[in-house]
Specification:
- The chain is α+β, with helices and mostly antiparallel strands.
- The protein has two domains: 143 residues, Nucleoside Triphosphate Pyrophosphohydrolase; 65 residues, Arc Repressor Mutant, subunit A, CATH 1.10.10.
- It contains six helices and nine strands, in the order αββββαβββααααββ.
- The strands form two sheets. Strands 1, 2, 3, 4, 5, 6 and 7 form a seven-stranded mixed β-sheet that branches.
- A hairpin with a 2-residue loop joins strand 1 and strand 2.
- The N and C termini lie far apart (73 Å).
């Protein structure tokens, strides 16, 4: 016999704890370029489990303040770096009964791109230390807590793949930059050289940059400084960026 309850009556008596609830968190691979190397922010855990191990920044969903998963990711990004506006992109969801010794857990992994100049590293009760670490070194050591090695590798590959056909690396630069600095950022992420003339033509033809009117003084003639016309827009190129032929 069908229940005569209304939806409101049903919800008034419904107990969410009648069913098992997994742990739900966000983890973020926060990338930046430092001294011509691609780095990712890591935190040394101050609490169990995995106390003393290095991990990607992250944390549990706050049911009182986080209206969406993205809210949680932006909150954790701001808590660790002081950055409130950045390119933040959901990459993968991972859930199973083995990734966290506390129980069945799900994490939604993001990658964020920031200019190191905009970052103010901040410790809290869950992190003993924070530091930038070269991505290649971390992947080689394979020593992050939980399944963060796997998450880092997936986020890194997503970044490298998207750099070939989008303007994504502009998010790793300070507000003003030269075309040479822009090209170098692309090369650092791709880990390969790019042909200078075609790269500059591609960037200028895409009309994603605008001149600031300022110049960078150097050993040769001053270089024009540019900024991104709309930092909130990720431009998609019609052809992949390739190395020199």
């Amino acid at each position: 016999m069908a229940s005569s309850q209304t939806e409101r009556q049903f919800l008034n008596t419904y107990n969410i704890h009648d069913y098992d609830i997994p742990l739900v968190s966000v983890d973020i691979a926060i990338f930046s370029v430092i001294d011509d190397k691609l780095n990712v922010l890591t935190v040394k855990r101050a609490q169990q489990p995995r106390k003393g191990k290095w991990a990607l920044p992250g944390g549990f969903i706050n049911l009182d303040t986080d209206k969406t998963i993205e809210d949680a990711a932006y909150r954790k990004l701001a808590e660790k770096t002081g950055v409130t506006k950045a390119h933040l992109e959901q990459v993968i969801s991972v859930g199973n009964n083995t990734r966290d010794p506390r129980g069945w857990s799900v994490t939604i992994a993001y990658m964020a791109l920031v200019s190191v100049d905009a970052v103010d590293l901040r410790k809290d009760g869950s992190s003993e230390e924070l530091t930038w670490t070269q991505v290649d070194q971390l992947k080689k050591n394979n020593d992050l807590a939980f399944d963060h090695n796997k998450i880092l590798k997936i986020c890194h590959q997503r970044l490298k793949d998207k750099v070939r056909y989008t303007s994504l690396p502009v998010n790793l630069l300070p507000p003003e930059f030269t075309l040479t600095e822009l090209q170098r950022i692309f090369e650092v992420v791709l880990a390969e050289p790019i042909e200078k003339k075609s790269f500059r033509r591609r960037m200028l033809d895409a009309q994603i940059l605008e001149e600031t009117g300022n110049f960078r003084e150097g050993s040769t003639r001053p270089a024009k400084l540019y900024r991104v016309a709309d930092i909130n827009t990720n431009y998609f190129f019609t052809r992949n960026i390739e190395g020199p032929r």
